[in-house]
Amino acid sequence: MNEADGHFTLLPDLAVRPLGGAVIWANDEFFAEKENLINPGVPEYRPSTFGHKGQIYDGWETRRRRGAPGDDSAIVRLGVPGVIRGVVVDTAWFRGNYPPAVSLSALEIRGYLSAETLACRTDWVTLVDRAPVAGDTRNPFAVDSDKRWTHVRLTVHPDGGVARLRVHGEGRPDPDLFGLGPLDLAALENGALVLDCSNRFYSSPNQLLYPGSARSMGDGWETSRRRDDGNDWVRIRLAGPGLIRLAEIDTSYFLGNSPGAARLTGRTNDGTEVELLPRTELLPDTRHRFPITPMAASVEEVRLDIYPDGGLARLRLYGELGA
């Protein structure tokens, strides 16, 4: 994959299972289960591992159509609905059984419809026109749409196997629910987004904004060891301009590699910097909760500095939307 073609892959994968994504329907999954499409890890392959239906693949694979009309499809409910900037159709390990072409469409659904009802809908909007793909390859496709989507449908033409589907974009909350009750202004599902960071050697900083608790050290953000006098940092665009009341900096699972200290700085819409949390020592493997002194002005971005490097599981910034 050309780096220029896949720049959107730095954005979070809105469909991945740890974010709550689910493959809710497929018209065929004879050789390999549809659920594999959104597994978080890289596809694996063990040669000569045969089950009752043939070689076992870490992906979704349909039977050979043998001239039967139509194509095969799978529907994914995004874990975080939002704006899709690009998708990657990964055909890793599928060499003689990958589809010649794929396409992708999407829907925004309010409420909760059954998978069967969604499969019969005729108002799916095409985001990626039918396009050729290569086997055993990460095939990237940019998407030009600023609309919010809740579901995507991957279609393989006419059949075959796909290892993973990555749907990269920015979270957009349900406008009917947004702002009801306490709000985590740094949550990916509420529309927060990592804008930049100093280092992403071991893992993506997007995981700082994931819902739920981290399940392992690999489920957070970890930087490489610094050999200079600097420190690592990450910039986050909040769900909206807001007043932060409570910060949670979680070093769970990071024991010998947690940061020694952290600092939080906010930025208002006129560029003014506001200190939210002064440089404060951190403990390993601990959920730290710090009250934030009420501010007179809302902030729209936050910079988290860690000293000098290391790993964090999650960052929560609780508050309310402000002017």
From TrEMBL:
SUPFAM superfamilies: Galactose-binding domain-like. It catalyses: allantoate + H2O = (S)-ureidoglycolate + urea. GO terms for molecular function: allantoicase activity. Transmembrane segments: none annotated. This is Probable allantoicase. Pfam families: Allantoicase (PF03561). Pathway: Nitrogen metabolism; (S)-allantoin degradation; (S)-ureidoglycolate from allantoate (aminidohydrolase route): step 1/1. It is an enzyme of class 3 (hydrolase). The keyword Hydrolase applies. Keywords: Hydrolase, Purine metabolism. It comes from the Bacteria. The keyword Transferase does not apply.
